[in-house]
Amino acid sequence: MAQARRNLSKALASVDVVVEVLDARMPAASANPLFEELRKERQRPALKVLNKADLADQDVTQQWVDHYLDTSKFSSALPLVGKSKRDVRKVVQQCQKLAPHRVDAIKPLRLMVSGVPNVGKSTILNGLLGQAKAKAADEPAITKMISRYEVNDRLVIYDSPGVMWPKVDSIDTGLHLAINNAIGVNAYNIEDAAIFLIQKMLEQYPGALTDRYHIALDGVDSVAFIEKVGDKRGMRSRGGSVDFERAAQLVITDYRQGRYGRVSLQTIEDII
User: Which range scores top for mean pLDDT: 21-35, 151-165, 192-206?
Assistant: First the structure.
């Protein structure tokens, strides 16, 4: 981690704008405090890209955009869908506004694209490059080192590794990251993550759960709900009881694949 920090800090010296890719459904939890710390040390502006906006609650996403615009004159925010080439083109346009002095071949715009695993950073990077240079995969930390790409004579892009910070101090943040598959499966308990997810859904989007599973919610807590999902899907252990772990994996997979519709697991109130 110390070496990664030094490499990032050194690369930032040659960067005009940091493009931090966040998951629009959990912007605060998917933000790497290391990137933010180093960015501020180097006094570089940031574009907060709220990726997967098509899976997030639109009203909540707008609140996050307003929050980032209000809290720093050196930052901007852009909700988008990384798989949309039209959306990705907006990234460069927004960055040019943050670094208006970098406009030509003599002073090309230099961007660093950063993000924790599985926020869609590689997909956005590939869209910016115009070809699949960064290997996209649903596995934590597929990008291992900082790479530099000269897109054209007016644009240079640095790809930073999808590294995590040394220690996640907040249990809440850790569970969000687990749900989002940003940390390895050996680093968390799948059942705890599923219980956390369903509790959030019961509080904020109960209708999405009934639409997906057709299970009555009266008097049901998160544990009981997951058990009902397992029972309805026929997930049984050898003894005949519900296989809670399989049911837990199912509800998390459904979230990751967007089967609950547009939901946001974090709001501005969560960080105030």
Answer: 192-206
Residue 166 has pLDDT above 70, yes or no: no
Widest pairwise Cα distance in the chain = 71
- Domains present along the chain, CATH in parentheses: 2-159 (3.40.50.300), 189-270 (1.10.1580.10)
Q: Give backbone dihedrals phi and psi of 8, rounded to 5 degrees, phi first.
A: -65, -45
- pTM for the model stands at 0.90
CB 50 within 8 A of CB 80: yes
Side-chain-side CA neighbours of residue 82 (13 Å)? 23
Q: Which amino acid is at 154?
A: R
CB atoms within 10 A of CB 208: 18
Of the CA atoms within 13 Å of residue 7, those in its CB half-sphere come to 14
- DSSP conformational letter for 135: P
Beta bridge mates, 236? 242
- Rounded CA-CA distance 183/176 in Å is 10
pLDDT at 11 over 90: no
The helix or strand, by DSSP H or E, that contains position 110, with its residue range, turns out to be strand 109-114
Cα 71 to Cα 64: distance, rounded to the nearest angstrom: 11
Tell me the angle at which helices 85-98 and 121-129 cross, rounded to the nearest 10 degrees: 80
pLDDT in tens, 60-90: 999 999 999 888 777 899 999 999 999 999 9
Q: Which residue has the higher pLDDT, 8 or 246?
A: 246
Q: Quick check: 108 pLDDT over 60?
A: yes
Instruction: Measure the CA–CA gap between 67 and 234, rounded to whole angstroms.
Output: 44
> What does the pLDDT read at residue 49?
97
Terminal Cα distance for the chain, rounded: 29
Q: Which residues, 6 or more positions from 120, have their beta carbon under 8 angstroms from its beta carbon?
A: 21, 23, 51, 52, 82
